[in-house]
Fold:
Amino acid sequence: MDVKIDNFSFGPVTLTVPVGATVTWTNRDDIPHTVVSTDDSKTFKSKVLDTDEKFSFTFSKAGTYPYFCSIHPKMTGKVIVQ
Amino acid sequence: MHPFDIKTVVFAKHAQHVVLIHFPIALFIIGVLFDFLAQWKKQRLLAATAYYNLLVAAIATIPVTGTGILAWQWELEGQKLKGILLMHLVMGCVSSVLIWMVWFIHMRTRRKHERIMPGYRLPIEAAAVVIVALTAHLGGFLSGVNGPG
Structure:
């Protein structure tokens, strides 16, 4: 399951995956971005991703995981784990 | 949002740096412009205008540098920077030092009651304007203002 970061947005914005799935975010943008979850337990947080760098996280619990880019807070996305 | 969570209150969406940065950039560039005009027209009023613009520009670098460094420490948890972010940080610090240096040259001359400003300040001011503009361009690129976003 992949999420592409490009042109200051996450694509797809909402991704639905089964429990145990690994989601990989790839920065295809020219500038750095981060992937930071905003759920109460702050489930995942990437380092700064430069162009073509990746970040992966395996979701072991069902739930909704909203996230954003901490450098560009307007960039938001969501992973729904069922 | 917890009202006593300073980190969240101050840096919610950490827009402060992006807003505040416009003040020293504008004040410094216009201050240098007035100084060049003062040099050309030999008018003390223009020189005084330049001085006060440079003074406020220098003061304005303090919150800008502070919010930039705190955003790095808090939003990015102080992780090792590289690429454009590192370049922006370094050039931002250099720009702040140059703005203070230019103001200091003006302040020292005024304090000594000298009527003629040292000529060496002009190339320093010109170089500082270029570095400030490059830093601002990088910042705009990072924030998406100068990019496709």
About this structure: The helical segments of chain B are 6-11, 16-20, 22-41, 44-75, 83-111, 121-143. The mean pLDDT of chain B is 89. The CA atoms of residues 41 and 139 of chain B lie 34 Å apart.
